[in-house]
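Prompt: For my understanding, could you write out one protein's sequence and backbone structure tokens?
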Amino acid sequence: MGHPGSTALPPVLSFRFAVGSYTESYGDFRARGNGISEIGLSGEGALRHINSATLLNPSYLRHSAAHRRVYATIEAADRRAALVALELSRSGTRLRVSARIPVEGRLPCHVDLHPSGRWIACACYDSGNVLVKGISDSGDFDPDSGSEILRSGSGPHPVRQTGSHPHAALFSPDGRRLLVPDLGTDELAVYPFDHQTGACGMPVTWRAPSGSGPRTLAFSNCGQAVVLVSELSSEVSILQWRDGAIRHRARLSSRDPVMASSKTGNTASGLSMHPDGVHFAVTNRGDDSISVFRTDPRDGSLTRCLTIPSGGTKPRDCRFSPCGRWLISANQDSDSCILFEVGFRPLPVVRRIAGIAVRSPSSICFLADHHE
């Protein structure tokens, strides 16, 4: 499915993916999970549990094929907050915690790996800080290297924007920048990054609309555009990217107008780019839906192609498979992951295939080196 207008489905492949789940409630969060579940996906769309690892609130996962590791944030508001590295056995039969490092911050909620594989960045939602730590040759943490950013500020929302709330930390494809969307201050901060020392310089800041609450982001495959999801306003923006400089190109609601008119209250949440580099999916908590968009990074155009029910309640995350044939939603409050088949004829067509029980799922991470 390398071309947007293609009608052919991609090759039939089997994959494995990991799902993080909330195990301990805080605030109004519902948590019933047991940690990380590894799930198999056959070429025919069948799902099965493979194994699991017991962890406290592994809210976001990031896979490193080079290190055979899954990195997870332990989302806690106390001294249990941490980053964890889990080793994936060569047989694929188990996940084992290989390293853990405390996080000096509250509610770490997102991680990303530097393109070199030598650094990991972590955003702490509640305390306003972003950490960068070194990764050793073995794939575990180097606690004595890296840097820290402490953000400040606020926004107009009386509850969600009383302080800085960085919700993600994403390295640019060339590794020279670290991008931080701050839900609390309505800013996207772009920090110069020194890949030799792990230090971050003074940021260039792009201001999002007041009260919009930037949450998460992703680069287009060509690296010329950034897709930004704003949680509080339920919007998607396309930002032109040129060597650290940002220019706004387009903005649309993440919600389908019919669904939005029949429901009250929604927050946009998960984001996944399709491998074709043109399409992407965004989840809506409240509407309980997934919207699929098309963008052209060359002209900055943005089109909502379709919106489908997520198959459950409070879809926190979604993920396209590496082959592009499958889309999975993680429905936190209905304890399920739902599988959809995706095609383009030439517009996206999404068909529900199967579901599997996963309690309080928070994040989906495909294990890209585990397929056949």
The radius of gyration is 19 Å.
